[in-house]
Sequence to fold (90 residues):
Amino acid sequence: MKNMAKMKFEDHDPIVILTHGGEDYIQEVEDAGSSFQLYPGGSTVSPNKELWEADGDTECTVSNSDYIRDELSTHFLKIVGSRPRNLVQR
Fold:
């Protein structure tokens, strides 16, 4: 799988999922900024933001080349397949 990786989360890790155009983007952070750019391309987007927490160890497959970057330069990687299991909303 080219440009794919596994993102792993441990119990109680804070997670933010951004949703844009029917696609989910994920990162282990407490929160996200308020302005976003979609890559490749760098176009400005306004994704929906959800705050989650890992409820046990879990993982998901992500794309390293498709991401949303916030103004803090945090990269939220595109989830390939389904969202990780064992998540609870914060």
Observations:
- Strands lie at 4-9, 14-20, 23-27, 36-39, 43-45, 48-54, 58-70, 75-80, 87-89.
- The chain has a mean pLDDT of 96.
- The CA atoms of residues 5 and 44 lie 25 Å apart.
- The chain has one domain: 4-89.
